[in-house]
Specification:
Layout: H1 23-33, E1 38-44, E2 48-53, H2 65-76, E3 86-89, H3 93-102, E4 106-113, E5 118-124, E6 130-136, H4 140-144
Parallel strand pairs: 3-6
Antiparallel strand pairs: 1-2, 4-5, 5-6
Length: 155
C-alpha cells in the first residue's frame, strides 16, 4: 500500500515567538552571539519591533512529564521549571556554551554527555528563557540501532 503525499505540505514552517523585555539584548544574544541569521525585521507603531531569525531546520519535540523530568536530570542533575525550552544543535558544545555565558547567559549545567550520545549544556538566556545547546556525538543511524532508541514508526 502506498501513501500519497499532499501536493503541498500542511505545515511550511515552525516559528517560536519569544517575548523579550530587552529586545536589543535578545537580538545581541541570539543573532550576534549564537549566530542565527536575520531573515527579516519589522518596526511598527508604539515602538513595536520584531526580528525573524533563521534557526536552521526546525523540529517540534513532544515529551511527556516523565521524559521532561529525565531530560532535566540528565542535563542539569535536578528538576527545572515548567514551560518551553529552546534547543539549538551546534558543532562545538563547549565553545558555544562559553560564548553564550560571556554574552550574559547563566550556565545552569556545563556540557555533559547524555545517554543518547550528545553533549548537552543548559543555560538561561538574559531574558530568563531556558535553552539547551547540544552537539551530536554520533549519527542518527548509529543511535537508532541501540536499545531504547528508534522512532515510533519503527515500533
Amino acid at each position: 500500500m502506498t501513501t500519497q503525499q499532499p501536493e503541498t505540505a500542511p505545515v511550511l514552517q515552525l516559528r517560536v515567538i519569544v517575548e523579550a523585555e530587552d529586545f536589543d539584548a535578545a537580538i545581541a544574544f541570539y543573532r550576534d552571539t549564537l549566530g542565527l541569521p536575520e531573515q527579516a525585521a519589522f518596526e511598527g507603531d508604539g515602538d513595536a519591533r520584531v526580528s525573524i531569525l533563521d534557526a536552521g531546520r526546525a523540529t517540534l519535540e513532544i515529551s511527556n512529564p516523565a521524559q521532561k523530568r529525565m531530560i532535566d536530570q540528565v542535563e542539569t542533575g535536578s528538576r527545572q521549571g515548567p514551560g518551553i525550552r529552546l534547543a539549538f544543535e551546534v558543532t562545538d558544545g563547549h565553545g558555544v556554551t562559553t560564548k553564550l555565558a560571556e554574552a550574559g547567559a547563566t550556565v545552569i549545567a556545563e556540557p555533559r554527555e547524555t545517554p543518547w550520545r550528545s553533549l548537552n549544556a543548559r543555560l538561561e538566556d538574559p531574558a530568563g528563557q531556558q535553552i539547551t545547546v547540544f552537539e551530536e556525538l554520533e549519527d542518527i543511524a548509529t543511535r537508532t540501532d541501540r536499545e531504547g532508541f528508534g522512532t515510533a514508526a519503527s515500533r
